[in-house]
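Saturday, quiet lab. Running sequence design on the structure tokens for the scaffold JK sent over.
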């Protein structure tokens, strides 16, 4: 099993470069750039599709020779305003030039081209901040590209804000078996941020059979890989947690199963708030 905790390898430039090969899995890739004003990054999508997420700052984006203008609005991810993003299908070259200090996430997954897909801006005005959970399990979601949006072939991307002292991805749940519609196989990346930045958070990745059982203390800008199993995380008191999720698998559907020991929490709270 590959190392599931990936520390930020630098404070500037490309600080993460996670490929399916380096993660020892099949679908999800993730790069992260922290650019100073005027610095650039770019690449070719090849046989993968990409969603560029302007996590912080502003950048000008060019795809296949077409300029898409300046993207980005929030200067801190903890402003909680919707992100500016752009979807890029396979077979395209792209580049970005930071017009302010900028943090850019490059989320990727396989692209077959069976259906013709085009470059598109993801309208931030249509990304709502949704409350999920109850009590100290409350968190807030920006669904950037989940299954309800059909412009991507296999890639799903979302942002989550977890208040100080709260839990997230909880009760523990897994999506590691390809048995749709009951459950889907989805590899998942968590790119974590802390506010204030000197903080830390905790995440456990564990399977019911005990094959994987690891608990991590992550820092600002670290990444946790979830190849399978349950994966709850927590924000200690005094520190707010943000994470960017990147998911992909053979079916672009998010179907999960809660841990049988802890599903009673979901059943109780769902009944109390009237959720499905």
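Result came back. Writing it out in full:
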């Amino acid at each position: 099993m590959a190392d599931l905790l990936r520390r930020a390898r630098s404070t500037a430039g490309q600080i993460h470069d996670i490929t399916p090969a380096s993660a020892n899995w099949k679908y999800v890739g993730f790069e992260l750039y922290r650019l100073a004003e005027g610095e650039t990054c770019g690449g070719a999508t090849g046989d993968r599709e990409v969603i560029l997420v302007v996590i912080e700052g502003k950048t000008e984006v060019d795809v296949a020779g077409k300029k898409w203008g300046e993207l980005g609005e929030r200067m801190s991810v903890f402003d909680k305003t919707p992100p500016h993003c752009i979807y890029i299908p396979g077979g395209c070259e792209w580049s970005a030039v930071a017009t302010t200090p900028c943090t850019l996430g490059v989320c990727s997954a396989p692209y077959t081209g069976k259906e013709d897909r085009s470059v598109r801006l993801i309208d931030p005005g249509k990304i709502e901040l949704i409350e999920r959970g109850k009590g100290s399990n409350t968190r807030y979601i920006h669904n950037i590209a989940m299954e309800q949006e059909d412009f991507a072939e296999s890639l799903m991307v979302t942002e989550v804000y977890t208040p100080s002292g709260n839990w997230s991805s909880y009760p523990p749940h897994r999506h590691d078996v390809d048995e749709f519609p009951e459950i889907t196989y989805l590899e998942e990346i968590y790119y974590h941020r802390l506010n204030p930045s000197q903080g830390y958070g905790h995440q456990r990745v564990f399977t019911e059979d005990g094959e994987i059982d690891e608990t991590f203390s992550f820092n600002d800008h670290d990444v946790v890989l979830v190849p399978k199993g349950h994966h709850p995380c927590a924000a200690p008191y005094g520190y707010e947690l943000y994470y960017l999720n990147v998911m992909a698998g053979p079916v672009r559907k998010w179907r999960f199963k809660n841990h049988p020991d802890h599903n009673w929490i979901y059943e109780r709270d769902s009944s109390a708030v009237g959720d499905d």
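Notes for JK: The chain has one domain: 10-113+128-273. The chain is about 5% helix and 50% strand. Ask whether to fix the surface positions before the next round.
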